[in-house]
């Protein structure tokens, strides 16, 4: 699968780097970008692994599946980089209080948006998901039924056990930050799926 799809992570803070580690563990190439130039990201990217490729933002957003790991208030700036995001899948790994991924979707016209990989703290996300005879669960939610499937397949490739929660306002609400500055009940839950 990795041969016909390419991946990028926008934002190279703790969450972006944790995601990059997941790709590096499986030798899957992923572009990483932030507001900083690629050379500023290079030392950290090299430390994570050779499949983590720093790129300029305009190049990184050419990927098929793009993980958004920027501070929530910056996602709109990224969204303005393309007039249409048609054909791209955005994985919303951010936590914005009181804003569901439906809000994020408005900033990326034409994109298929999947909420995912946001419920684990970066430190946990960075560790190997295959533990204790099982795999660490990542929750996915999307208003686009077909969009979650390739992200679930990628999560499997990365060693996680994806669990689909349904639409943003349904199951997705369990993994979003709320307007009252509280967290959905599944955020920070470090759950495992036993291998059958």
Automatic annotation (TrEMBL):
<dbReference type="InterPro" id="IPR028939">
    <property type="entry name" value="P5C_Rdtase_cat_N"/>
</dbReference>
<protein>
    <submittedName>
        <fullName>NAD(P)-binding domain-containing protein</fullName>
    </submittedName>
</protein>
<dbReference type="InterPro" id="IPR036291">
    <property type="entry name" value="NAD(P)-bd_dom_sf"/>
</dbReference>
<dbReference type="Pfam" id="PF03807">
    <property type="entry name" value="F420_oxidored"/>
</dbReference>
<dbReference type="InterPro" id="IPR051267">
    <property type="entry name" value="STEAP_metalloreductase"/>
</dbReference>
<feature type="domain" description="Pyrroline-5-carboxylate reductase catalytic N-terminal">
    <location>
        <begin position="7"/>
        <end position="96"/>
    </location>
</feature>
<keyword id="KW-0560">Oxidoreductase</keyword>
């Amino acid at each position: 699968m990795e041969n016909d799809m390419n991946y990028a992570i926008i934002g190279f803070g703790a969450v972006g780097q944790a995601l990059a580690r997941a790709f590096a563990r499986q030798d899957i190439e992923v572009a990483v970008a932030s507001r900083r130039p690629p050379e500023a990201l290079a030392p950290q990217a090299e430390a994570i692994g050779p499949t983590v490729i720093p790129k300029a933002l305009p190049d990184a957003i050419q990927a098929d599946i793009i993980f958004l790991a920027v501070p929530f208030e910056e996602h709109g700036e990224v969204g303005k980089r393309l007039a249409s995001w048609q054909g791209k899948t955005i994985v919303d790994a951010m936590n914005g209080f009181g804003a569901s991924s439906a809000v994020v979707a408005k900033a990326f016209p034409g994109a298929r948006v999947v909420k995912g990989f946001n419920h684990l703290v970066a430190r946990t996300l960075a560790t190997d998901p295959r533990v204790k005879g099982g795999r660490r669960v990542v929750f996915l939610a999307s208003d686009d039924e077909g969009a979650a499937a390739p992200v679930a397949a990628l999560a499997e490739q990365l060693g996680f056990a994806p669990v689909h929660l349904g639409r943003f306002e349904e199951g997705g609400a369990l993994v979003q930050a709320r307007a009252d500055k509280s967290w959905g009940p599944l955020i920070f839950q470090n759950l495992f799926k036993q291998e059958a």
